[in-house]
Every structure is written in C-alpha cells, then in structure tokens.
What does this fold into?
Amino acid sequence: MRAFTYERAASPAEAAAAVARTRGAKFIAGGTNLLDLMKLEIETPTHLVDVNRIGLDGIEGTPDGGLRIGALVRNTALAADARVRKDYAVLSRALLAGASGQLRNKATTAGNLLQRTRCPYFYDPARPCNKREPGSGCSALEGFSRNLAVIGTSGACIATHPSDMAVAMRVLDATIETVSPDGATRSIPIAEFHRLPGDTPEVETALRPAELITAVTLPKPLGGRHVYRKVRDRASYAFATVSVAAVIGGDGRNRFAFGGLAHKPWRVEAAEAESGRGADAVADGVLAGATPTRENAFKLPLLRRTLAATLAA
Amino acid sequence: MEFSTPAGPNPIDTGRVVTKPVDRIDGPLKVSGRATYAYEYHDEFPNAAYGFVLGSAIPKGYIEAIDAREAEAMPGVLLVLTHNNTPKQNGSGQHNSPQLQGPGIKQAEQAIALVVAESFEQARAAARAIRVRYARAKTGHYDLAAVKDASRPVPKSPDSKVGEFDRAFADAPVKLDVTYTTPDQSHAMMEPHASVARWDGDKLTVYTANQMIHWAVDGISGTLGIPASKVRVQSAFVGGGFGSKLFLYADPILAAVAAKRLGRPVKVALTRPQIFNHTNHRPATIQHIRIGAAPDGKIVAIGHDAFSGNQEGGEAEEAANQTKLLYGGENRLIRTRLSELNLPKGGAMRAPGEAVGLLALECAMDELAEKTGIDPVELRIRNDIQYDPAKGPDRPFSSRKLVECMRVGAERFGWNRRDPKPASVRDGRWLVGMGVASGIRDNLVMPSGARVSVDREGVLTIETQMTDIGTGSYTILGQVGAEMMGLPIEKVRVRLGDSDFPKSSGSGGSWGANSASAGVYAACEGLRDEIAKKAGFNSRDVTFADGHVSAAGRSRSLAEIAGQDGVAFTGEVKFGKLDDTYAQASFAAHFCEVAVDWATAEIRVRRLLSVCAAGRIINPKTSRNQCFGGMTMGVGAALMEEQVVDGRFGYFVNHDLAEYQVPVHADIPDLDVVFLDEIDDKSSWIKAKGVGELGICGVGAAVANAVYNATGIRIRDYPLTLDKLLPGLPEMPRQS
It folds into this structure.
C-alpha cells in the first residue's frame, strides 16, 4: 500500500472541493473495495477524503412518491428499510444476495455503484490489464474468463460489473445525484451512469473528476412481483455467474436487468416488450450481439433458463 | 516403549475420561482471542521489523537483473534481500527450504526478494518498487494432460500386480473403462503462513505456523547451516494446515536471515494471494479406472492408473493407492505415474492419495452398480474383503467395519427411499438424488514422545512437540494423561508445539491423535512407575484414581508424593512391525442427498451422513468436529474447488478466497456423523486410528453420485460446476 494523506470532510461540497484540490485524491466511504485495491496498489490514491461524516445517510420520500437514498446509507440499512422492502423488494433482495453481513454493514449505496470488477487479471498487478494499466493488453480475452462478460465487451476488456445492488437499481430506473467541486449538482440516469469498456475500460462511470455521489433516487413504486435471482457456484459469498432482477407485472409491463453479463448492469428495454412471447423471445433481444468466450459461452443458455424459470415461478 | 504386539487391557480401557466428549481445553483461549498464533507475538518482540516477500512473476527462467535501489530508499526500509546479498544456504536436507540462492526461477511466486521495513505496509510498498528483468524459459509444461504420455513410474510407489489383469478384464462379463480427472486444489487454511525470528547470540528462535516441529527444526537448521541444538521452534497454536504447514516456505527462512542481518526480530507473513502459488498444493490427477465384474457385481479384475505431475524432484499424487485395499478381486493392476510440470510444487493435502483417488474410484463403483443393476450399497458389501488382496489372508485387516458402516448408514439415511432410476425425483424446482461412497484411509503411525510431570498441587503437565492445528490435540492428550494418572481433566495442563519438548509425531497423515496419545501413554506409564516407587509401593498392581495412587489398601495423593520437586518422566512410543502382519486403515460410508436446480444446474447439498469406523474415538466431540471439516472439504472438492491453471503465465490464476471457492456456511447443511464402536488393539495402546483425513475420503464421490442420481448426468471432470451439467439438463418448457 502506498503512503497517503487523509482528511475528514464535513459536507458534500467540501468533500468534492477537497478531492479537487489534491492531485490523486479519492473519496473513501465504507472502504470495502478501495482498501483491498490499495493493498495491491491497483488503486494508489495520494490523499483520501473521508466522507463518512457528511450526512447523506438518510432515506426519505420524494415529492413524486419515490425514494431518495443518501449516498452513505449502508447496504444493511437499505436492505432492511421498510419502504424498500415493501415497494422496491427487488432492491432489498439484490442487496442481501451480495457480499456478507459484515461487508454490507460497511458498504455504502454510492460505493456499491462504484465497485470495480473482480476479473482475476485486474486483481493481479503482475499481469497485463487494460483497465488497471491502459494499453498493457487484456489477459482475460484468451485466459480464465469463465465468470466474465459475454455482451457489450470490447477487444480491450471483458470485465463484468460485480454489483447486485446496481442491477436492481437499473431495473428500477434509479437516478444518481451528484455534486461537483464548484457546488453544481446534476442527476444521471443509471442507464447512463455505468459505461461499456470500449477502448477505455479504465473509465467506468459518467462521473467527472472530484464529482461526488450524494444520493440515489428511485421513481415512484412500480408495483408488480419483484424477483432477484442470482445464480452462482456456491450458495453465498460469490459474485453472480448470471443474475436477473425482475419487476413483473405491476404497471402492466415486465422489466428485467441482468448481472454477470456485462461491464454494466445489462438491460434491453425493447426486449421487455417481447415478454408476451415467452422468455426466449426476451432473451433473444437481451443477448443479441453477445460475444462470449469459449469458457463463458454457457452463460447464454444459463441466462435463458434462469429467465424462463423466473417468469414461470 | 515399543508397540510391537497387540495391546492388552490397560488403563485407557477404563473410559472415564477418554471416549468422553470433553470440551476443548484450549477453547476459552481461542474464543476470547487469547490463543497466540505465530504472527501475533507482539509483546515478545516489541522492536520487530516487518518483512514482505516479493514473488516471481514468471514460472521458469532466471532473473537477468534486479534493482532494489528505489525500494531501499523508501520510507522505513531497513533491508532488501535478493539473491545478490543473501548468504549461501543448504538445500540438500529433506525439509530444507533454501531461499534467494541464485537468479534461477523454478516456479511462479518463488521468493525473489525480501523487503524489511519498520511497518508491514512500508515493506509491501517498497517491494512493489523493486525492478526486475526476467529471462523466461522458452519451454515449460503446465498442462497435465499434455505431458501424461511422457510420464514415468515412481520408485516409491511400485506397480501392484496381482493375477492377470489384462486377461481377466478382457474376459469379464461386465466391463467398465472410465477416466476421471481432478484439478489442482489448495489447502486454503484460515491462518496464512507466518513466522517471527529472533537471534540471541548464535541461538535462533522462530515462532511459526507449522504442523511438524522437528521437521521445522531440521529444515531451518539445515538450510541455514547451524546446529539443530541452536534452533528453537514454537507453534503453540496453528490455524489450520491440511498438509500445507508440513513444510517450510520463505517466511521462516527469510525472517531468520533478515533478523540476523539486522540484529532485531523480523516478522514475515505470506499474503493470501501469494499462498496459492508460493506454497504447495494438491496436484491434479488423471485417473484411468477399469473394472471387470461378474453379473452379480463381484469384481474379477480391477485396474487403476493414476497420473499426476510435479516439479523435478517432486512427488506423485498417489491416487491409486486405496484401490490396493478397498475391494476384492483376484486380478489387479494398480499403477502410479508422474510427469514433470513447471507449476508451483505439489505436495500433501488432507488425505493425499485417497482424497482424490476415491473421487474417481467411488464414482466408478457407482457406474458399475448401474451397469450390473445392483444397489450401490450392496455392490460394495459384495466386494468387501477382510484381508489385503495382494498379500492374501496372511495379512488381515487389524479391524475393518466397512460393511457395518454401509448397513448402519443406509438404515439411518433412509437409503431405501432412493429411486435407482436417475432423474426421477422432483421437489418443486429441484431435482433430488442420493449417493453413497466408501471411505478408506491408511492408518499411519509415527514415533512420538512426551514429558509428563506431577507437581505439588497434584497437577499433571504434559509437554510434547505435538501440534494442535485445530484438531483438538490439546484436549485429547489431556484426556489420555488424565485417564492414565487418575485425574480429572481440570487437573491436567497441556503444552504443545515447542521444540524444547520431546519430539512427537506432529500433525500429518492422520497419525497425530493415535501416535501422540500413545507417546503420552508411554510417558505416563513411566510416571506411574516413578510415583509408585516414590510411594513405596513395590507392586505394579497399583491403582491411580481420584488424584491418588493406591495399592494393597494403602492410598497416597499424587500431590503429596510429588512434593516440592515434583516428579517427572519422559517417554516415547516407537512402533514395531505390526503393519507387516496387519493391514491397517480406517473406514467410512458416506451418504449424500443433493438437490439440483432444474433450470440453473446449481447443486445444493441437502443431507450428508458419514458413518466411520476408526478405532477407539478418544473424544467424540473433537472427532466429530474433524469429520465436519473433512466432509465440508469433500463437498468443496466435489462442487467447487479448483486452482485454475493459466498456462500462458504458468501459474494458478484464481489466487484468493473470492475466486478459489471453498464451501461457505450456506453450502453446508446439518452434517450427521456416526462412529461405530471399534477397538483396534493393533494400532497402539490407545486402540485408536486416524480420523481427520477419513472425514474427506469418499465424501466428494458420494456428492457426485447423488448428482448423477438426481440428474442422470455423469460428470467425470471435477469439480461438478453448473456449466458442466447445463448441457445435459432437460429443455425448459416453452411458455407463452
């Protein structure tokens, strides 16, 4: 771990300004991913700005009947919130399918969105990885790719986004609110928040330098049946091989987002309209253009079957 | 004392303390965080410096240049050791582990530097600043299948040929000819390898995580070229080993070298990602099994060829060994073959040989059961044999209750509810099946000593190099001492894992409980004589009970006899040649029920039962605990554990606990363990056999057989992950 300096911010705007002031600075909240990456020198911040005491840890209703989740709301608290459990059950279920109780106690809503991939080559500083070291090459393309992305990949990167929570947020059409060092705020629809790898897999989100997530907003409840189905090799404490976040029925349509498939939570709205023709019709649309490796081609039939079982349940 | 004839009646038979489910006497220390593991000795080493090992990025070749100038200039850095400035060491001893002895690279993550700094993070950061230019060898082999045909016989494991296998197999009415593979596996124990070294003049003390204290002393002293008498090794608590800590890696050696150079104590721990490649692992196997049988299921010919790979000088994974003893059959051909690989070195892991051999053999038996239409339990019973099939009735088993294990287990598990037709039981979205497998593990014994003493308080202290690697050694040795001296367990102190104590069997090969207990028994026999003598009882006909020794109506307390100076005795067990006369092994029958998600092929174990016959069970609680661990590891071997080889880089790519998956709590249902009553008087005076490894032997095959029964899909390449099952699952119904 490289030596770094540390300060504790007192407000969101101050935190953003503090990160903007110091070259190489980063925010730290729960630290459940950042600290691991710092130990391996995959992340080498020179300065950490601790945002744990800037407020932003509340969950409140919005004027249009939705829910505004503070960036620092811990995963455990979010999953247990009565409004989330009642109206956004897919989110609660996705949260509880992720990590472990200990990690969820520390991990924050914003930090969860910003988790970095678990590609084993990304985690191994001795191997080429375009995400870790742009231009060095992708070891995964011809390597151990069993759990990596099958769609939206590029010749530079086939990493997946590891979050379960983000998949639920995607199916719920969440909006990410931010503040910039100059105090300006903006709202980013989650569909535009995470990026595909393209030629710059090191750029993972739409966040600008020193821009801080302040909240995640959910639109008014959709109703319907909420499912989060996570498929994995062991029963707990594993990242998704594939996962399906589904809101079935409710306002008259079905919504699906998928984890374990891509560099971002994967959703193809056009395919949802095919629900009436069965799971395969939806899957055809969701998986159109997939480019799996030999090792992870099984994810395509697995996704089809998982989706069919989810719809049939 | 030599154990060379079957044990007669002795104080252990009393069963007052031994055989009782005594709580771990070290339990309070462990649950309160006061059991000190190697890296946690802070107060003893207030000025310790921290070492960090830099591992090789290439698997084979040499270092052209290594530049540590930048690292040396970094904050807190005290020393950088590389092959350019490390004193010459000796690599010839069996347990030696020379480090940084030249530019040559033999495996990925081989230590190429040690950075020592005032803090761990300073050392780790500086290690990243070392610039290395490698010349990677153009050749190198990382794929067992590709080098299998270039394999050689193994002198240590000669071919076992009985009768005429080829003819008998060719003529057999029922033939099975199958190949199974098992992947490389990692011990993945909780406590990483860690050491602290301190020099006092020419005397070296190393606190380290190690299973075998005298091997560690030999290895450290041999490597450093100093007398064994100058090396003290301590391993009072060890957080799991499973064979990984039988051997020495960079941590104790480089800690000692750096501590000498700096004149202050040095701590070195391996990080989790380093462990998977730097230390050893269970090698992958390819196993070719041929069984010829009569229509009634009786085996007439059995062949098992086990292929594995290792570095030059490394040992074979003897995965065919159990096939020599498990079932009858007049014609037998059992061979072990070894190829050279340039992967990290392979070595012993929990039940080396049997653990993976049974994954293959016991699934092959399941296949034979289906081919012959005979129930899998019945097939195993029909092929039971009460003597070594190669030696004949002249070498009977000392005790063998495999058939009883099968019968008791079948009854308890409800085996008769199993539908022999695969893929015929549904429970909602789950396909449900049951499987069975036999377990066998060689019963190994090792010489073992102990010093026992009674003080003026009447407290018995037992001291031996024996280690407790989570197994319960503290407790069971205490029980044996308590039984022998007629004391309650509360009056016994046990001190382990210190090379100043008498040499012991150590913990490995499941020999520890029986051998070390026999060592304590031998020492206590001597102590009983001493006490009887001091008490003025000239008869051997004395009784030790309730803290007193009594004879002929007279009784004196041990405390009084011990007096101010106490009384002590050092004794040892050595094992004679009973092994020649009797085949010795422990046996088990494992029953498993799994559910397979019909859509996703996720496999979840629902029930697991092991019925074990392992001689006298010294402590049913710690023994059961051992079985739980073995069963869990067996589930892991069946369903998820695999070190994935990346041949391009010549290493195991999934080198952390997120990517190398072992079962978590949610994967393990309530486990059921039954120990059959068994006394093995050919094993030792304790009449016990090993348990720790029996727990894993055969479990994975029971799981795999249950998966077959649930799905009708036979996967012969472990682990049975969902991607391998998916293509065989029935089509999903189309819905609209």
In short: Chain A is about 25% helix and 20% strand. Chain A touches chain B through 45 residues (CB under 8 Å).
